[in-house]
Design goal:
137 residues, alpha+beta, Lipocalin, 1 helix, 8 strands, 53% strand
Amino acid sequence: MIAPFAHALAVLIGLAASAGAAQADPGLAGEYRGIIWSAGYDLPGTTVLMVGADGRITGRYDYVDATQPASGTLTGCAFAAPVLRCRWNDAYGSGTLVVRFDPALLAFEGSWYDYSLPKPHDRPEGGYRWTGRRAGG
């Protein structure tokens, strides 16, 4: 009688430990400065990533589009090292952001996608440029 209970308890402890590990902060939180392509130009941009106590990754970004500041949010993020995928949303629309971090998590390069726009001719993989380097790093 005790053996099945002990086995069930061990399984529950194992599940709790693996859930805690999955929610651990992967070290992405911080401010990254780089380029966000918009309206035909590579523009200076800032991306801020946050990791909640529950391990959920969210963020925000800012850049100057033409002559006015633009900003947006990053939600629904998933990190499978070294790739981060998020949903971006701003006044111009929404879509997918996919970036690849360097091994030290100090910088990333990737693309944002809005499938209602034509595929850019200068990026065979599709998407529009989005980069970042950790501020102060």
